């Protein structure tokens, strides 16, 4: 099974994404790590972008879509995600949720730790920690070691002090609330976004941390999982 992860769409369609999915028709699932739209858009109502964007991915490329909100997505984003996709294949808002998909378990938490920009989806880092901890603890409790599964934590905020949260100046702006539970539970993969220039692969212990960067820059994360729950992960160009 193949999973493609993107982030930080910010209200801009991507022909490169659609073409890549059509050319790689063995991809089953697209994960969106937040900021599908942007509260600051003035030329159209921001949430009106969500459904046509997701509908095109699902209907034209025959994939499922799971998404979380970002800090720039306005209120109502989860409902907009849920209302997207055809009736027989709706998109799923993974914010504060856990879902099994074939031999993968995906846990999602959107929004970001506070920024200097006063964006609508900012969340206190202690709250991020408590919710991400609970999601990972829930799977740790119900997980069956006899059934191998790849665990993916999908967050908008990147974990603090990693390649994934490094801005152009070299400063780190990520979330301790994401980093601490990753240290504690060691999911296989954390896919994140938020920091546009930080397209990267890094490690926290045994956890692979992957940030595809802003979609407009033409990159995504590709995860391949085999029937034994062995996986590979890497950055791909959509061009």
Account of the 3D structure:
Strand 2, helix 2 (50-61) and strand 3 (64-67) form a beta-alpha-beta unit. The protein has a single domain, classed as Metallo-dependent phosphatases (Purple Acid Phosphatase, chain A, domain 2, 4-Layer Sandwich), CATH 3.60.21. The two termini are 22 Å apart. The strands form 2 sheets. It has a 6-stranded mixed beta sheet. Helix content is 23%, strand content 26%. The radius of gyration is 16 Å and the shape is globular. The protein contains 5 helices and 12 strands. The protein has helices at 15-23, 50-61, 77-82, 125-142, 176-185, and strands at residues 2-6, 27-32, 64-67, 92-93, 97-101, 104-109, 150-155, 189-191, 200-204, 207-211, 219-225, 231-237. The chain is an alpha/beta fold and 239 residues long.
Chart the SSEs and their pairings.
Blueprint: E1 2-6, H1 15-23, E2 27-32, H2 50-61, E3 64-67, H3 77-82, E4 92-93, E5 97-101, E6 104-109, H4 125-142, E7 150-155, H5 176-185, E8 189-191, E9 200-204, E10 207-211, E11 219-225, E12 231-237
Parallel strand pairs: 1-2, 2-3, 3-4, 6-7, 7-8, 8-10
Antiparallel strand pairs: 1-11, 5-6, 9-10, 11-12
Second-tier CATH architecture = 4-Layer Sandwich
The CATH C-level name is Alpha Beta
Spans of at least 5 consecutive residues whose pLDDT stays below 50 are: none
Q: Could you say what the CATH topology is called?
A: Purple Acid Phosphatase, chain A, domain 2
H/E element sequence: EHEHEHEEEHEHEEEEE
The structural domain count equals 1
Say which CATH homologous superfamily is assigned. Answer: Metallo-dependent phosphatases
Structural class: alpha/beta
Kindly report how far apart the N and C termini lie.
Answer: 22 Å
């Amino acid at each position: 099974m193949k999973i493609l992860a993107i982030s930080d769409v910010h209200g801009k369609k991507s022909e490169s994404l659609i073409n890549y999915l059509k050319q790689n028709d063995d991809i089953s699932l697209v994960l969106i790590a937040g900021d599908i739209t942007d509260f600051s858009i003035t030329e159209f109502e921001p949430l009106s972008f969500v459904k046509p964007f997701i509908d095109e991915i699902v209907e034209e490329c025959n994939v499922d879509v799971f998404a979380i909100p970002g800090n720039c997505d306005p209120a109502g984003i989860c409902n907009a995600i849920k209302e997207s996709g055809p009736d027989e294949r709706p998109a799923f808002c993974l914010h504060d949720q856990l879902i099994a998909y074939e031999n993968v378990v995906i846990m999602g938490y959107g929004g970001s730790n506070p920024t200097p920009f006063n964006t609508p989806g900012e969340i206190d880092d202690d709250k991020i920690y408590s919710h991400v901890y609970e999601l990972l603890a829930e799977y740790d409790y119900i997980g069956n070691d006899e059934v191998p599964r790849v665990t993916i934590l999908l967050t908008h905020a990147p974990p603090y002090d990693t390649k994934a949260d490094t801005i152009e100046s070299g400063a780190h702006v990520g979330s301790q609330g994401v980093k601490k539970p990753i240290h504690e539970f060691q999911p296989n993969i954390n896919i994140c976004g938020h920091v546009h220039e930080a397209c990267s692969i890094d490690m926290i212990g045994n956890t692979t941390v992957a940030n595809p960067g802003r979609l407009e820059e033409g990159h995504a994360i590709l995860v391949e999982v085999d029937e034994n729950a062995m996986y590979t992960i890497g950055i791909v160009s959509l061009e």
